[in-house]
Specification:
145 residues; mainly alpha; Arc Repressor Mutant, subunit A; two-stranded antiparallel ribbon
């Protein structure tokens, strides 16, 4: 395309209220398709491409990581990545976004707890403290008497 023709197309797309990025992407796609047709391509349908999927956060990978974390909540992102052969950033994305967990005191816990889970955690945290406070008194009572 000549510069004047490109400008005319850009003006037309601008009048259609397309953003700069949309116009750029559109022009780039046109350039690529013209090059393909010059090479002798006849079909306008995209060809099937083999290779890895664009998103490694597949349902299978999410389930694998979830199973690992259910067995041991103290695992690190690096250890999970090495175990599963998944990229560290993808593992982090799966754990934080897909599974909704965050790291607290070296353990992975859900970001949002239900009311019932909050009550259980509160009871578990306060129960050992009350036993510790009660035991010294009984022990002291035994010594004094």
């Amino acid at each position: 395309m000549e510069k004047i023709e490109k400008r005319a197309v850009i003006k037309y797309l601008f009048i259609k209220r397309m953003s700069t990025r949309e116009i750029y992407d559109d022009m780039l796609a046109v350039k690529n398709w013209v090059a393909e047709f010059k090479r002798g391509r006849r079909s306008v349908v995209n060809e099937h491409h083999s290779g890895r999927p664009k998103d490694a956060a597949s349902a299978e990978n999410i389930q694998i990581i979830n199973d690992l974390l259910n067995k041991d909540r103290r695992l690190t992102i690096r250890h999970i990545a090495e175990t599963t052969s998944i990229n560290c950033s993808t593992v982090h994305q799966i754990v934080s976004e897909n599974l909704g967990m965050r790291k607290v005191s070296a353990r992975w816990v859900p970001k949002m707890l239900t009311e019932e889970q909050k009550k259980v955690r509160f009871n578990v945290c306060t129960d050992p403290l009350s036993r510790l406070q009660a035991e010294p008194r009984t022990f002291l009572d035994r010594i004094v008497t």
